[in-house]
């Protein structure tokens, strides 16, 4: 039996108002996050990955608003809650943020202050989501630092973030995300700012922690290599939509959307002939305010069929089933 769905995102729409008009940053995003599994969200810069993460935690700030859709925590259970309908400052939402759902940022200093020691900040985070005494919270903070692989945590707890290397800082960022004992973790490009060796260590750490704690992980990245290593299922995003969803093996073996195929062609391969040029996708993701008519990917698509792609929008990917939002797919069906 498939694992229980812990978070169901349905038709999520987010828009930003500006003097030039309304920009639809997310245009009907749907996916399921299953208990204990890793959902990879992949796409180029600007496709809406971070806005998706921020929406779930209700961290989108004005002029951004959630203009439609549902964010269902524990769907289909008596505890079901639609985060899209909660006040971002409500007690319930503050308990979700950092409590049920932890967030790991690309830049750990987003979650940390330069003015306080690592320990002070971790202790504060532990106490926010529990009734622990000061002494218990400190012991838990040391334990958290140990869990994320920080050597000599009893000493390091009194360090300031700037005294630590980038890799250790990201480990502290992960400890911060885990301080409220969440069962869901959203990691937004957690290794993008790190060198390759540290990147591999942090990914291994995330994998170990996920297995140990049974965490449901939503991993946002632009890097197909990270997806290959970490994800169970993958949602490929383009211009504020999910254009393909598939189990990871299937995605790599038989990608269905031309955009996914283009992203995969851009991954360096150890099998490629020396000096073979790495393919890149022509053009750039358009600004969401300049969304092309028809299929949003058609101006960059090397496989477009003709008028249909320029004039009509392909059907969305059916939620929870492998598929691609592409007229080629519809033709094949
Ligand atoms: N504060 C904002 N004001 C206006 N538009 C915004 C704002 N934040 C995001 N957007 C719009 O939402 C779109 C999606 O942004 P988002 O940061 O989610 O992309 P991303 O895929 O996470 O890219 P990156 O990897 O560069 O963060 C952007 O192209 C931008 O136009």
Automatic annotation (TrEMBL):
Q: Pfam families under this entry? A: ABC_tran, oligo_HPY
Where does it sit, as one GO cellular component term?
Answer: plasma membrane
Membrane topology type = Peripheral membrane protein
What GO biological process terms does the UniProt entry carry, in alphabetical order?
peptide transport; transmembrane transport
Annotated InterPro entries: AAA+_ATPase, ABC_Ni/Peptide_Import, ABC_transporter-like_ATP-bd, Oligopep_ABC_C, P-loop_NTPase
Annotated localization: Cell inner membrane
For this UniProt record, the keywords arranged alphabetically read as follows: ATP-binding, Cell membrane, Membrane, Nucleotide-binding, Transport
In alphabetical order, the GO MF annotations are: ATP binding; ATP hydrolysis activity
The ABC transporter domain sits at 7-264
Q: Which NCBIfam families match?
A: oligo_HPY
Homology family: Belongs to the ABC transporter superfamily.
Q: What is this protein called?
A: ABC transporter ATP-binding protein
What is the organism field in this record?
Answer: Teichococcus coralli
What does the organism's lineage look like at the top?
A: Bacteria, Pseudomonadati, Pseudomonadota, Alphaproteobacteria, Acetobacterales
């Amino acid at each position: 039996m498939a694992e229980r769905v812990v978070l169901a995102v349905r038709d999520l729409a987010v828009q930003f108002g500006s003097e030039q008009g309304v920009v639809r940053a997310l245009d009907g995003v749907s996916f399921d996050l299953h208990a204990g599994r890793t959902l990879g969200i992949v796409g180029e810069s600007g496709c809406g990955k971070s806005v998706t993460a921020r929406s779930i935690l209700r961290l989108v700030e004005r002029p951004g608003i959630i203009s439609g859709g549902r964010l269902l925590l524990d769907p289909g259970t008596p505890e079901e809650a639609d985060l899209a309908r909660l006040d971002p400052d409500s007690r319930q939402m503050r308990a979700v943020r950092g409590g049920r759902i932890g967030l790991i940022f690309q830049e750990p200093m987003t979650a940390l202050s330069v003015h306080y020691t690592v320990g002070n900040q971790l202790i504060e985070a532990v106490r926010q989501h529990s009734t622990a005494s000061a002494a218990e919270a400190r012991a838990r903070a040391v334990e958290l630092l140990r869990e994320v692989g920080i050597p000599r945590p009893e000493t390091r707890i009194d360090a300031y973030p700037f005294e630590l290397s980038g890799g250790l800082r990201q480990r502290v960022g992960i400890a911060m995300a885990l301080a409220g004992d969440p069962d869901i973790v959203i990691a937004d490009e957690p290794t993008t700012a790190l060198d390759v060796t540290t990147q591999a260590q942090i990914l291994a750490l995330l994998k170990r922690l996920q297995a140990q704690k049974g965490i449901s992980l939503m991993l946002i990245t632009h890097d197909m290599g990270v997806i290959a290593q970490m994800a169970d299922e993958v949602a490929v995003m383009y211009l504020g939509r999910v254009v393909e969803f598939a189990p990871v093996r299937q995605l790599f073996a038989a990608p269905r959307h031309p955009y996914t195929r283009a992203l995969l062609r851009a991954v360096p391969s150890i099998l490629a002939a020396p000096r073979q040029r790495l393919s890149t996708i022509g053009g750039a993701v358009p600004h969401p305010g300049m969304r092309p008519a028809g299929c949003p990917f058609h101006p960059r698509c090397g496989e477009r069929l003709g008028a249909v792609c320029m004039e009509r929008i392909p059907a969305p990917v059916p939620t929870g089933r492998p598929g691609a939002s592409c007229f080629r797919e519809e033709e094949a069906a």
